[in-house]
Amino acid sequence: MSVLARSVGNAFRNKVRTGAVVAVLAVAIGLALSMLVANQAVAAKVTELNASVGTVLTVNPAGGQGFEGGGEPLTAEQAATAAAVQNVSSVVGTKALRLRNATAAAAQAAAGTPAAGPGGGQGGPAGQNTTTLTTSLTAAVDAGTLGNRNQAAEGTTGSTGTTQPVRSLPITATGIGAEVDSTGKALSITEGTGLGGYAAASTNALLGTTLAEKNGLKVGSTFTINDQTYTVAGLFDAGTTFGNNALYVTLPAAQTLAELPGELSTMIVTINTLENVDSTKTALQSALGTDKADVTQGQNLETAVSSLDSVKNISFIAFVAALGTAGLIILLIMVMLVRERRREIGVLKAIGAPNRTIGFQFVLEALVLVALGSVVGAAVASFASGGIASALISSNTSTTTTATTWRGMPGGAAGFPGGGAGLPQGGPFGGASQLLTTVTASASPGVIATGIAAVFGVAIIGALVPALLTARIRPIEVLRGE
Amino acid sequence: MIEVKNLVRTFKSGDRTIKPVNDVSFELEQGTLASIVGKSGSGKSTLLSLLGALDKPTSGDVVVNGVSLASMPDGKLTEYRRRDIGFVFQQFNLIPNLSAVDNVMLPMEFAGIRKAVRLARAKELLEQVQLDPEKHIRRINRLSGGEQQRVAIARALANEPKLILADEPTGNLDEQTGEHIIELLSSLSRDHNTTILVSTHDRQLANKTDRRFRLQQGRLTEDPARTRIAATAPA
Ligand SMILES: Nc1ncnc2c1ncn2[C@@H]1O[C@H](COP(=O)(O)OP(=O)(O)OP(=O)(O)O)[C@@H](O)[C@H]1O
Ligand SMILES: [Mg+2]
């Protein structure tokens, strides 16, 4: 019989109590691990967000954002000006088009409702020179409640309770000067190829996966925009329902379709390093003129990152608190055990056991309890951590995210007229919630191992106090009664 | 060689102090088998616990082979208990959830003896105290009082101590087993030069010892001759 065997045996001397202690420990350890998993997942997301979009600035016409607002359109000359600004590594122009299903548009016109065009349903007079065109494609997103409201509202809220004709949602077509989406992120092409040269007009297009699916299109299929036939060169996955109800063509092609050559909706400016972003933003703004262009740094992202940061902090505090609780449980239970076995400790000393052997035996016994608690706790955490992480994120970000999403969006729900089940799937400027929902809290073995190591560390500290208490027990205890 | 010098142990109970060990002095040569008799509460267990370094005297000293216990730090006292002393407690003080063998192996484990050696020796010792082999692996709290007492004796012998302090080692044993234990102890003192001090109410045991002490109200006296006690005591 070794110290270890004796410690294990002692841990099971009172099975009912051991069971209770293990259960309580499992709850604390499970919570600690879940919080750690949430913390790690969010931290990883923050890093990823910062790394991916941190150096990208978006230039909009002054007074305009997305399809809204007013002001003068951006031009190719401004793109050249922007490209000349120091530390700018690339400028990608985009030209946004709004496509409507030809049949649905005709039907809506017949029903006497003006198709929501610029200045229509969106309330803003003449959005930033966005042109609505017809297409053979059908939107992949159902209008739904939000869609209908967005399409109908004439800046009023009177649509509630009134029967409205079924509306179709527009499809966003964006002409792009490089293989990036409208927020500057590289497109994730799932099938087929990119458009090749983005600087020349071509009749190739990239379709969002759901849009292609809805219309039964594959790579190589054709469709029309304003009677011009386009070929599907590839499919992309933007990761969101809204983002996938879109298509990309080359910038010149979009400009031709809009009959506005040289005009840009936005410019996506990439800065060479993260450190230069702030100064370059200022330089860019003055080069383009405050009355001509708005330079933004994806503020939704900043909000997303800051709310993620608070989730990170909260989960870390909760992790530490749960860890402390586990340590405290161990401390209390071991103090109790030491008091209970006073006489036995006296016997061990009387027959010559050194203090450290006895202390070690008690620490080991505590670790046996913690090991059992960790096994159960890890099982609990692997089931619960996903739920806990998303609960944390949604409860913590709902206010800030909503505020961001709604900013500058007259009359409507999240961002672009999104539809479907009414989930505010944001557009490029309503992206916080969408970014957050992609935080995946999976209990990776590495994180769990780290957490359990921390639990053991705390348990050792917790058990050390009572173990040291055993050193004060005198061997003469054995000659006295209980 | 153990020298006891003016040993005093006092206890305070309420406002009066009792002195179960009051200025006790004696010497024991190595290999002596000695006994202490005395009424219940006369201080036998208290004296043995002082000799065994379980308790500290109020004053006086115990010198073992020239080394004073009073001057030893706690760590050395622990080592002394582990290496030099075998203590048989009046209440046995075995670890209740361990088996007989495990209990006997414990002091050897603390002394750093290899497991296989410990096990073999523990079994041998349990055989010497005549514990049924089938009870070797039985948990202590499932053994009878007398069986526990014999396990306690076996445990005290585990590290081949130079001094065995046995507090009424035959108190729970039948006459025959008790006699066997007495035989075992006297053979240890004779053949292994072990010093043995037993406290006992058992006159038969006391009569077989080389030296006999009597403790009365904390004072120790020695019965000078073996034959006198044997002669005056009716069978
Ligand atoms: N820790 C203590 N505090 C107060 N009094 C004590 C303490 N330990 C022992 N005593 C007292 O000291 C006296 C001697 O006790 P001790 O146990 O040495 O007697 P004993 O000779 O071994 O008796 P027995 O034959 O019944 O075992 C008793 O009166 C006892 O009440
Ligand atoms: Mg006694």
What's this, in brief?
The complex is a heterodimer of chains A (482) and B (235). With 482 residues, chain A is of the alpha+beta class.
Tell me the fraction of residues in β-strands of chain B, as a range: 25-35%
> pLDDT average of chain A, as an integer?
76
Instruction: Enumerate how many helices of chain B there are, as a single number.
Output: 8
Determine the fraction of residues in helical runs of chain A and give it as a percent range: 40-55%
Q: How far apart are the first and last residues' alpha carbons of chain B, in Å?
A: 34 Å
Mean pLDDT of chain B: 91
Task: Determine Rg of chain B (CA atoms, Å).
Answer: 18 Å
Query: Which assembly state applies to the chains in this document?
Result: heterodimer
| Most residues in contact: chain pair | A-B, 25 and 33 residues
What best-fitting shape of chain B do the alpha-carbon axes yield? globular
> Unreliable stretches of chain B, pLDDT < 50, 5 or more residues?
227-235
**Class by helix and strand content of chain A?**
alpha+beta
The structural class of chain B is alpha/beta
Q: How many helices of chain A in DSSP terms?
A: 14
Q: Estimate the strand proportion of chain A.
A: 15-25%
Model description:
The complex is a heterodimer of chains A (482) and B (235). Chain A is of the alpha+beta class and 482 residues long. Chain A has two domains: 3-51 and 305-481, no CATH class; 57-296, no CATH class. In chain A, 50% of the residues lie in helices and 16% in strands. Chain A has helices at 3-11, 15-53, 76-84, 102-110, 144-152, 209-214, 241-244, 251-257, 277-288, 299-340, 342-350, 355-406, 432-437, 445-470; strands spanning 56-61, 64-65, 68-69, 74-75, 88-101, 131-135, 171-176, 189-192, 204-208, 222-225, 228-236, 246-250, 263-264, 266-271, 293-296. Mean pLDDT of chain A is 76; it is low at 114-129, 154-162 and 398-437. Chain B has a single domain, classed as P-loop containing nucleotide triphosphate hydrolases (Rossmann fold). Chain B is 36% helix and 27% strand. Chain B has helices at residues 44-51, 74-83, 100-110, 115-128, 145-157, 175-191, 203-207, 226-232; strands spanning 2-13, 16-28, 33-38, 59-64, 67-68, 85-88, 163-167, 195-199, 211-216, 219-223. Chain B starts with a strand and ends with a helix. The relative contact order of chain B is 0.19. Classes of the chains: A alpha+beta (482), B alpha/beta (235). Chain A binds chain B through residues 1-3, 6, 9-10, 13, 343-344, 346-355, 357, 474-476, 478-479, and chain B through 45, 49, 52-55, 75, 78-79, 81-83, 85, 87, 89-91, 93-98, 102, 105-107, 109-111, 115, 155, 159. Adenosine-5'-triphosphate is lined by residues 11, 13, 18, 20, 38, 40-46, 90 of chain B.
